[in-house]
Amino acid sequence: MNPLDFLIPVAHAQTAAPAAASGGMLSTLLFPVILIAIMYFLMIRPQMKRQKEHRAMLDKLAKGDEVITSGGVAGTVVGIGENFISVEVASGVQLKLQRGAITSVLPKGTLKSA
Fold first, then answer.
1. b/e burial code for range 76-106 (CB count within 10 A of at least 16 → b)
2. Which is nearest to 89 in space by CA: 99, 107, 71, 36?
3. 54-60, long-range: CB within 8 Å, 24+ apart, which pairs?
4. Nearest to 97 by CA among 57, 76, 113
5. Per-residue pLDDT at 1
6. Can you name the residues that pair with 94 across neighbouring β-strands?
7. What global pTM score does this model have?
8. Cβ(25)–Cβ(32) under 8 Å?
9. 69 near 58, Cβ under 8 Å?
10. CATH class of 61-113
11. d(CA 20, CA 99)
12. pLDDT, tens digit (0-9, with 9 covering 90-100), for 11-69
């Protein structure tokens, strides 16, 4: 058996592969596009929706609303500025917080019942 007999079939297989690779090029480009689309719908879009809802909640804040901050402090809104909100956490104790620190608005009367 000639040692070149093992090389010839390999050479034929290598020349046949580029003809099939033209269809593989489409699937190679299609995979990252599908991956980006999945990432958009599973991660980016829900985060943008949450940000939009949070912004709308902050715009609706009014004096007397009961809120919880990102630090877990619960209180009642007593003053609203452009960038800061004053929250009363106990009688006579007010905290000045950034608007973004408010994470949720509680139903009226929640703090009194707690």
1. bbeeeeeeebbbeeeeeeebebebebbeebe
2. 71
3. 57/102, 57/104, 57/105, 58/99, 58/100, 58/102, 60/105
4. 76
5. 59
6. 88
7. 0.66
8. no
9. no
10. mainly beta
11. 59
12. 554 554 555 555 677 778 888 999 999 999 999 999 999 999 999 999 999 999 999 99
